[in-house]
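Structure in, sequence out. Go:
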């Protein structure tokens, strides 16, 4: 694709990157075939190819409008198009660049600004989120339906964690909303890792990964959180932590990009690359170990929803299914398993109608083969799918934790 970037765009730090991505696109349209919003809306501008043209126009200095912003907002950032693209176009990076420039040039309506500011400042702060969640449960019946359905009726009781006792040790990202919405996920992960001979070293100063703010176009704030996490992890990394384990695939995808996103920061570039190198989705760690300490199951059929951030961003499609199969679970067939469920971080709150359609389509596919349980690998997907009030969705590690054999405990 030919480009003619404006003088203003050429002064951006990522100008060369944007131009390289644009020129890699041969506008073949294969991406539209796997784009969830294009399939629902049928509009060229609501597919990757159309959005690339819009971003090209923005970066070439052409007029930008609220319509441009809307079409970019409607993108789920699911990266399905990147899996499909025969030219290797790094669409998600171009989208970040384009969205930031549009945000600078177009003033949003007050209602949108308030919603996005609230999501940035509440979701990214675990203590504030937990407090607001408690209030939300109290006044649940008074809230708008889109928000009401996101709030679980009761707070789960967290299972106990294993103590630090092994020579092998890893760090773990606790996350921002997961400790309140699904506290058993990381507790179960720690117990499974303990049985595999790996201890989780606490890192209490680590907070939100930064993805929430970054993808709401508060990119500087998101990178600021990345820097704080790097500082909090660094002493344990220097002490020999072998990995940073992340049970929420959305967070894992973002942490793995720290090195790329902070490459212009001379103070953090090298450390960020090191952190990204150490970042592991939970399934990468579990799949690499023998599973002798777990009992095997027979006749239990599981439907797995593979989050976009796991299969497209991290390219780990099939990894969780492989672990569950090793333990004896039977995986059901899920139609259109490559498509997004509509969660996409805060997308289900900023674009509720599209998100609801995608959610219901995904649940139809997951429920079609009548599984005994439905599992996923990302707290956002779990919460969004559960908001339908249909089949309950939990994290896959909870299935594995339930198979721990007490008589085979490793000390």
């Amino acid at each position: 694709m030919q480009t003619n970037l404006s003088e203003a765009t050429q002064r951006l730090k990522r100008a060369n990157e944007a131009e390289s991505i644009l020129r890699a696109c041969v506008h073949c349209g294969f991406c539209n075939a796997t784009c969830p919003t294009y399939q629902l809306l049928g509009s060229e501008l609501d597919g990757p190819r159309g959005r690339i043209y819009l971003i090209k126009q923005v970066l070439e200095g052409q007029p930008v409008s609220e319509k441009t912003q809307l079409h970019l907002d409607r993108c789920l950032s699911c990266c399905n198009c990147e899996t499909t693209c025969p030219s290797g176009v790094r669409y998600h990076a171009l989208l970040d660049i384009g969205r930031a420039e549009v945000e600078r040039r177009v003033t949003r309506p007050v209602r949108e600004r308030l919603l996005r500011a609230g999501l940035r400042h509440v979701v990214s702060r675990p203590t504030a989120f937990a407090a607001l969640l408690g209030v939300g449960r109290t006044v649940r019946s008074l809230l708008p339906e889109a928000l009401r359905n996101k709030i679980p009726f009761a707070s789960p009781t967290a299972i106990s964690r294993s103590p630090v006792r092994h020579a092998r040790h890893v760090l773990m990202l606790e996350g921002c909303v997961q400790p309140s919405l699904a506290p058993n996920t990381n507790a179960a992960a720690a117990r499974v890792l303990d049985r595999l001979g790996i201890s989780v070293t606490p890192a209490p100063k680590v907070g939100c990964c930064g993805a929430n703010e970054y993808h709401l176009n508060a990119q500087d704030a998101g990178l600021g959180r990345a820097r704080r996490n790097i500082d909090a992890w660094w002493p344990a990394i220097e002490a020999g932590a072998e990995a940073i384990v992340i049970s929420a695939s959305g967070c894992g995808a973002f942490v793995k990009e720290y090195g790329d996103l902070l490459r212009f920061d001379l103070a953090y570039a090298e450390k960020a690359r090191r952190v990204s190198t150490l970042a592991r989705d939970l399934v990468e760690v579990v799949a690499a170990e023998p599973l002798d300490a777990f009992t095997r199951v027979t006749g239990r059929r599981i439907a797995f929803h593979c989050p976009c951030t796991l299969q497209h961003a991290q390219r780990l499609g099939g990894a969780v299914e492989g672990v569950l199969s090793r333990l004896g679970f039977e995986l059901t067939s899920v139609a259109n398993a490559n498509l997004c469920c509509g969660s996409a971080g805060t997308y289900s709150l900023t674009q509720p109608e599209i998100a609801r359609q995608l959610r219901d389509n995904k649940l139809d596919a997951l429920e079609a083969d009548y599984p005994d349980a439905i599992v996923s690998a990302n707290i956002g997907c779990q919460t969004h799918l559960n908001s339908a009030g249909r089949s309950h969705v939990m994290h896959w590690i909870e299935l594995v934790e339930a198979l721990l054999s007490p008589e085979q405990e490793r000390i």
